[in-house]
Amino acid sequence: MSLPDNLNRRVGQLDIARHGAVTLLTIDRVDKHNALTAEFWGDLRRVLTELEADQQTRAIVLTGAGDKAFCAGGDIAGFATLTTLESKRAYQIDAMNGFAALENCPLPVIAAVNGLALGGGCELTLACDIVLASDRATFGMPEAALGLVPGYGVLRAPHVIGRQMTKLMVMASETLDAQQALQAGLVQRVIPHADLLPKALALAEKVASNSSMAHAVGKRLINRGIERAEFDYSVEALTVLQSSAETQQRVRGFLERRKK
């Protein structure tokens, strides 16, 4: 499928716009700090599949709408709608498949992190190839406060930022500012906030000018794939955690505090 130049359209939470050989994907749910609904993962996979088949897109930039958040993670309120073990397991599988689709996409994907990147938002950056951060960006995986762990993050982050830094972020819910994330290896460049998107698009254009075949082969060789057994264990562990009485109590407490 060939997409028209300067295409602007929306698929679920994703706004899609073409900039020459670069396609900009914007997570757009500003009123919720771009928190992700359950439908996001299927929409992301469909859009990536479409762009892979499109003969014009040679690089992707992923960012968040507004000035405050790249993505604040999964929509906690949506967890309350998952009432059965099977629905919880299906959600975890869907999310993990979404992260895998982003990581394994043959097109180079650059994250332009314009603010909060928490939980699933931080995990999305881990799945991207290159991460540029605004000097206002903050990264964190605070799921332990809800009795959970970041299912993809615990598998991928140790390869990116090391085991101990991953444990600090996961166990203590420690956040990293942009400079700390740069030092940890999660971010490759820190850019003044106002210049972030232009710089990300410029880098994507530079990347797009090189060989797409070389990108696809090189990316596959560089990325160390997550073993299927690890994937399955993470899904089952998260399903059990999400079903626990403690987690459900913590989620209710979070939602009640948010209403005040």
TrEMBL record:
<comment type="similarity">
    <text>Belongs to the enoyl-CoA hydratase/isomerase family.</text>
</comment>
<dbReference type="InterPro" id="IPR001753">
    <property type="entry name" value="Enoyl-CoA_hydra/iso"/>
</dbReference>
<dbReference type="InterPro" id="IPR029045">
    <property type="entry name" value="ClpP/crotonase-like_dom_sf"/>
</dbReference>
<dbReference type="InterPro" id="IPR018376">
    <property type="entry name" value="Enoyl-CoA_hyd/isom_CS"/>
</dbReference>
<dbReference type="Pfam" id="PF00378">
    <property type="entry name" value="ECH_1"/>
</dbReference>
<protein>
    <submittedName>
        <fullName>Enoyl-CoA hydratase/isomerase family protein</fullName>
    </submittedName>
</protein>
